[in-house]
Amino acid sequence: MKYYYYLFYKIYVFSKKIGKWDIATSAALGLSFLLILNVFLILTNIFGFSPEIKYYYEIAFLIAGIVLLINYFLFDYKSRYKKVINAFKVESEQSRVVGNILVTIYVIATLISVFFINPN
Asked: What is the arithmetic mean of pLDDT over 25-35?
């Protein structure tokens, strides 16, 4: 879970720099979006999950709903995100730079994989 929380933290910091809306919710939604993309990439490419499958859309909405619900309870519910932010805001400069690079690579790789990884 530490890596998942760290990813939330990095998305939170990025959201804080670019927007003035509800930053914790935006970070949780951004993290949910990335996780949902990863889950669907795995299901599509390894298990052949596609719209031709019966109940495809119902399953897709269920998975997305579960991810959103889990992230709500991990971060937004009772402002739990504050503990996560406080745990990582004391990171060293070197750790911050390395973390930024790794998270950027992960986000870019996830977004690119949607377009370039096909089943079959």
From this structure: 94
